[in-house]
């Protein structure tokens, strides 16, 4: 008996990295999973593998940088899967640059995907989560960058900080029907993480040095973040809302 049997889940940015791991774990736990992403080839391949294991999934292609795309995605989940129990806004971009260097276009795009998309998804999904008459659950992928200034990550840090405030605020308004929580990962082995190296003064060596700075002495694999998301998405966290679960190998504790 899976932890998510009979539930419908939507995971955005699910064609690679952390989102892919979340979608695969949720399907293995019995959910019918809608995987969103921009890369249809990668998305359909993941869905094929999930279906091949006797689990349930569909791929819904959408670029989430506009309000309409987010609203249409929720409508498509409701139409195709008959409802929504679990929403996982996970898609994210780095948008590198300092306040004076980052282009206005990059600033806007980073805020559009990392923050505004979550706002639009919540607006569109909340009436459906409530209408189901079940206790819906939202788990947002944040970052330890909500609490720490990383070099040349102005838009990224700002977007994740605001996202955490949004999660806490929305959790207050929509309890007790809907629980809204956040997982803040630390360094995790994905393309986004590797791409972040160029923001530092020593891009060739910075990533090699990260494990030694962490109490756990290694970075995470995406599956380890997915397990924390599963806890907050499932009934195991039935009294948890407005919480931020930091999953960072001790990075924040070490300062
Ligand atoms: N990897 C890390 O070290 C780390 C640490 C903290 C937080 N995070 C967060 O985890 C989440 C997932 O990141 P990841 O590391 O797996 O990165 P990734 O680059 O591997 O995956 C990001 C996903 O978001 C999708 N995406 C980006 N822009 C999109 C758009 N406009 N529309 C739809 N989908 C879009 C990508 O296609 C991809 O599927 C992000 O929110 C990121 O900020 C990652």
TrEMBL record:
Lineage: Bacteria, Pseudomonadati, Balneolota, Balneolia, Balneolales
Record-linked CDD domains: SDR_c (cd05233)
Residue stretches making up the Ketoreductase domain: 7-188
Protein known as: SDR family oxidoreductase
Keyword Oxidoreductase in annotation: yes
Matching NCBIfam families: PRK07231.1 (NF005559)
GO molecular function: oxidoreductase activity
Family note: Belongs to the short-chain dehydrogenases/reductases (SDR) family.
Keyword entries, A-Z: Oxidoreductase
Taxonomic superkingdom: Bacteria
A matching Pfam family: adh_short_C2
């Amino acid at each position: 008996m899976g932890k998510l049997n009979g539930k419908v889940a939507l995971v955005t940015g699910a064609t690679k990295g952390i989102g892919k791991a979340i979608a695969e774990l949720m399907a293995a736990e019995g959910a019918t999973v809608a995987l969103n992403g921009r890369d249809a080839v990668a998305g359909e391949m993941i869905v094929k593998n999930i279906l091949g294991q006797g689990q349930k999934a569909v791929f819904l292609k959408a670029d989430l940088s506009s309000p309409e795309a987010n609203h249409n995605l929720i409508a498509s989940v409701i139409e195709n899967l008959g409802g929504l129990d679990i929403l996982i806004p996970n898609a994210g971009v780095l948008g590198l640059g300092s306040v004076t260097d980052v282009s206005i276009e990059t600033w806007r795009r980073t805020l559009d995907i990392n923050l505004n998309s979550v706002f639009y998804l919540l607006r569109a999904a909340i009436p459906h989560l409530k209408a189901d008459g079940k206790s819906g659950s939202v788990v947002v992928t944040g970052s330890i960058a909500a609490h720490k200034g990383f070099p040349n990550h102005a838009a990224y840090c700002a977007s994740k900080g605001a996202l955490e405030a949004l999660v806490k605020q929305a959790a207050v308004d929509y309890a007790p029907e809907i629980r809204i929580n956040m997982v803040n990962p630390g360094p995790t082995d994905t393309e986004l993480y590797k791409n972040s190296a160029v923001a530092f003064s020593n891009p060739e060596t910075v990533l090699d040095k990260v494990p030694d700075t962490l109490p756990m002495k290694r970075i995470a694999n995406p599956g380890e973040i997915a397990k924390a998301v599963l806890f907050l998405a499932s009934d195991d966290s039935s009294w948890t809302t407005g919480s931020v679960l930091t999953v960072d190998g001790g990075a924040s504790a070490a300062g």
